[in-house]
Design a protein that fits this description.
The complex is a heterodimer of chains A (266) and B (299). Chain A is an all-alpha fold and 266 residues long. Chain A has 14 helices and no strands. Chain B is globular and about 70 Å long. In chain B, 43% of the residues are buried. The chains are: A mainly alpha (266), B alpha/beta (299).
Chain lengths: 266, 299
């Protein structure tokens, strides 16, 4: 069967305005976070406060040096805040594109045409991934462009790598949300499962850094492979990136097969 | 019809929803240029049958072919269009945008032809779907079904929400499609909706196909009731004794006669008296086919 991207394009037209608003929101959010940096840069009080925290809590707040540009960006943006905000978009889109349309009774009309379920699934995947890509890229721009006024002059490779890691991380959770919701046929279940897992694995990852027996469990949490601090310090992280990509591919395959086999609700 | 492919061939189709039965053991061919009515009460399995033909629900056993192509292959749907029974379109889209979205997979659209259809149905395609009445949204559904000029149309309760004038225009559209060689399946829970359109009627009940008959045959077996209002009580009484019937109710100068087949013998019997008024009391399907169903029930 020839691959056609008509529904990807149609969805894009339908959603482009919402994507533009999200982009604007993300840009403003990052500008806001960046703008606070000059007021805490080089302030030893913050680092001191971190040192006084119980050791078990410290990893939840990010790296030890909150006041360096990389420490600040990692702790205030990339370790939790920015991925979580964009995840709201990712989970929302992931669960709307198939399960949402099924619940709205508009999926029948899409599939009544000469398009296979797998093809539709992949076109919807492309739509969600494209949205996450756009938001990831625009989230990088303010920090890059405002480097000199804010003093957040980190190497481009650091920003590019952490953005790429975050993008792959977001894709994984969005694909999870999409797969669960499409296989079960329920937007709510997809949101609950993926948001629950995002939150639960965040805790495991954070606590695993200080609680010995939890340490090995960290390896199954996507947050471990987001690896934001390493990405900013070391640049491109092929290993961590590969873990996220492979996991996304597995989740998407399972989702596409499950969706194909299902009886859709009228 | 040897040599020419049926537009739709359903062969021993069973669809189960887990343990619940959708439809069971249904076999039905719809020839090109033929209109088949799908008649049954709500929940009988009409919609399941249509959605199975589109592979929206998968056969548990049996098969469906559209123009000779198995329904499990996406390309089979290049030849078929579908109007869902509860049509929902994204409210933010204009009529045009909705048509473009749902016709997208079928290749370039013929804007002139769509414009023509919209004019015939008196529909403004530049308005947002969310601002349209139910009847006007249904018109978009009709355009979605008729615009691609498919070989097979599966229309689930297509005239719901349409006023009588537009129901007539719908009839014209169906006849044009049929003249062009398309097969049409038209579901309804009311026999009268199928009259004048369907060449034959497939009766579905509780997931089973209980009969495939011409409208005339069905009518002849279906029960109807008319109520006659006579000039006097005496005339009513004498009429009641003379007329052939299945069931009769006599109330002063009024007589209700339930009968099968032609109304002719009743009219002839009544003609000897002074008749003030005649009311036809065509019931809903459930009433009309009550006798028919119980006699034919295979379960």
């Amino acid at each position: 069967m020839k691959t056609s991207w008509t529904f990807f394009m149609s969805d894009l037209r339908l959603r482009i305005r919402s994507l533009l608003w999200w982009s604007l929101g993300i840009v403003l959010l990052v500008i806001l976070v960046d703008a606070f940096y000059p007021s805490i840069a080089g302030d030893p009080a913050l680092d001191q406060m971190m040192e006084e925290l119980p050791e078990a809590l410290r990893p939840l707040l990010g790296p030890d040096d909150l006041t360096s540009p990389i420490g600040y960006l990692a702790s205030q943006l990339y370790l939790f805040f920015l991925p979580t905000v964009i995840l709201v978009f990712g989970i929302g889109r992931g669960t709307s594109v198939l399960a949402g349309e099924e619940e709205d009774h508009t999926l029948d009309l899409l599939l009544a045409g000469p398009v296979g379920r797998t093809s539709l699934y992949l076109q919807k995947v492309a739509g969600v991934v494209f949205g996450l890509f756009v938001l990831s890229v625009v989230s990088l721009l303010p920090t890059l462009l405002l480097a000199s006024p804010t003093g957040l002059d980190v190497p481009f490779a650091s920003l590019a790598s952490v953005t790429l890691q975050m993008f792959a991380f977001l894709v994984l959770f969005a694909m999870l949300a999409m797969a669960v919701s499409a296989v079960v046929g329920s937007k709510g279940v997809g949101i609950a499962v993926s948001a629950g897992l995002a939150f639960g694995t965040f805790l495991i990852d954070g606590l695993g850094q200080s609680i010995g027996w939890l340490e090995p469990v960290r390896n199954v949490t996507p947050w471990r492979w987001l690896d934001a601090v390493a990405a900013m310090n070391d640049g491109f992280l092929p290993g961590s990136l590969a873990v996220l990509i492979v996991a996304s591919l597995v989740v998407t395959s399972v989702g596409a097969v499950g969706f194909k086999r299902r009886n859709l609700r009228a | 019809m040897s040599g020419s492919e049926p537009a739709l061939r359903i062969d021993a189709l069973t669809v189960m929803y887990g343990a619940a039965r959708g439809i069971e053991g249904v076999s039905l061919d719809v020839a090109a240029g033929q209109v088949t009515g799908l008649l049954g009460p709500n929940g009988a399995g009409k919609t399941t049958l249509l959605r199975a033909a589109l592979d929206l629900v998968h056969p548990t056993s049996g098969s469906v072919q559209i123009m000779g192509v198995a329904s499990t292959e996406p390309r089979s749907r290049a030849n078929v269009t579908y109007l869902p029974g509860d049509l929902v379109l994204p409210g933010r889209l204009t009529g045009w945008a909705a048509l473009r979205r749902y016709l997208a997979a079928r290749g370039p659209i013929d804007a002139d032809w769509i414009e023509q259809l919209a004019n015939r149905l008196e529909l403004d395609l530049s308005r947002q779907v969310g601002q349209l009445s139910r009847g006007n949204r249904q018109k978009i559904g009709l355009i979605l079904a008729f615009a691609p000029q498919p070989k097979l149309l599966l229309l689930d309760e297509p005239t719901s929400g349409l006023d009588p004038l537009l129901q007539r225009e719908f009839g014209v559209l169906v006849r044009e499609a049929v003249a062009g060689g398309a097969g049409v399946v038209l579901s309804s829970h009311v026999l009268s909706e199928l009259e004048g359109l369907a060449d034959r009627v497939a009766v579905v009940r509780d997931g089973f196909l209980v009969a495939v008959e011409s409208i005339e045959d069905l009518r002849s077996r279906a029960q109807s009731t008319i109520r006659l209002h006579f000039g006097s009580e005496d005339e009513a009484q004498r009429f009641a004794q003379a007329v052939p019937h299945v069931h009769i109710e006599h109330d002063h100068d009024r007589v209700s006669v339930t009968f099968t087949g032609d109304v002719d013998p009743i009219i002839k019997a009544a003609a000897r008296f002074h008749v003030r008024n005649v009311e036809s009391m065509s019931g809903e399907l459930d009433d009309i086919f009550l006798g028919f169903y119980t006699a034919q029930d295979p379960s």
